[in-house]
Design a protein that fits this description.
Largest sheet: 7 strands, mixed
Order of helices and strands: HEEEEHEHHEHEEEEEEEHEHHHH
Shape: globular
Structural class: alpha/beta
Number of strands: 14
Strand order of the largest sheet: 1-2-3-4-5-6-9
CATH superfamily: Ribonuclease Z/Hydroxyacylglutathione hydrolase-like
């Protein structure tokens, strides 16, 4: 059985499609809002899920999807508050999460991110697994406040803590914890309902993604609402299922790779078979997921 290497196959499987987003008809995209607490919301559209904090102090959002969607996103936010966007916190650099940066930056929003996000947004990046280039952003789209480990916003009656998890989905991932609201935004360290994309060429690694899940599980209680980068809002139990799925498959792939098995051999062994029905119908199909994990084996 030959390894599936077609980039088109991976891109066709999801609206996430970093390399194909320019071809999407954004006129058909609808922004849906879900309330998670008195001050926190999530917006679903095309691209990464947007976290929102609304209150008397400021309008604070997490990520901003694709540039053509900015007017629709602003309309959805206007239904929640008449305040302009004051802060945009990027969970990482990928364009389906930062595409609206320039629009919002020009509108006066203060963009915040991990140090590595600014570095990557400042120059063209190659996402090797997708053979996709991510262009540099102009000055208005770059984070003006960056942090190395963590930072905290004290707004809207909440304590919003953003902390860096190294070498997970990328090398610049931020996890955002709304402490009073009991909401956690995980960015693309969590794909709820399908196999995750781990951008190993941008510093990502399966061990780091598992470490994020472990930390968020430890921070959560039974009432915590968890926002994934893609997919529906869920709880601690759902995150644990995702974490165990990834750890199990990653362990199987490492074992086969260290036994000297080729990629084709590992795919033929079907290390994802018992998970494919639930997780294998999204952005990354099973064979490509195996290929991605094997590439991370050292």
């Amino acid at each position: 059985m030959k390894a599936i290497r077609s980039i088109a196959l991976a891109l066709a499987a999801s609206g996430l499609a970093l390399a194909a987003h320019a071809q999407r008809n954004y006129d058909e995209v609808k922004i849906r809002t879900e309330r998670l607490s008195p001050t926190t919301y999530v917006l679903f559209g095309a691209g990464g899920n947007i976290g929102v904090s609304v209150g008397e102090d400021a309008l604070f959002i997490i990520d901003d999807q694709f540039a053509p969607l900015t007017p629709k996103i602003l309309d959805a936010l206007k239904a929640l508050t008449d305040k302009p966007v004051k802060f945009v916190l990027n969970t990482h650099f990928h364009s389906d999460h930062t595409g609206g940066n320039e629009n919002l930056g020009k509108g006066g929003a203060i963009i915040v991110a991990h140090d590595n996000v600014r570095k990557r947004l400042s120059s063209e990046q190659l996402i090797a697994f997708l053979n996709a280039k991510s262009p540099a952003l102009s000055k208005p789209g770059l984070p003006v406040i960056t942090f190395a480990a963590d930072t905290t916003f004290h707004i809207n009656g909440d304590e919003i803590n953003a902390f860096h998890m190294p070498n997970a989905h990328t090398d610049g991932d931020a996890i955002i914890h709304f402490r009073k609201s009991n909401v956690i935004h995980m960015g693309d360290t969590f794909f709820n309902g399908f196999y995750p994309f781990i951008d190993t060429s941008s510093g990502g690694h399966p061990d780091g993604v598992i470490a994020v899940a472990d930390r968020v599980i430890a921070l959560s209680d039974d009432n915590t609402r968890i926002i994934p980068g893609h997919g529906p809002v869920c709880d601690k139990k759902d995150l644990k299922v995702y974490r165990d799925m990834l750890a199990t498959i990653w362990g199987r792939v490492q074992k086969l790779a260290k036994e000297g098995k080729s990629l084709d051999d590992i795919i033929a062994a079907k290390p994802t078979a018992d998970f494919d029905e639930r997780w294998g119908k999204g952005f990354i199909p099973p064979a490509r997921f195996i290929e991605m994990l094997k590439g991370a084996v050292k």
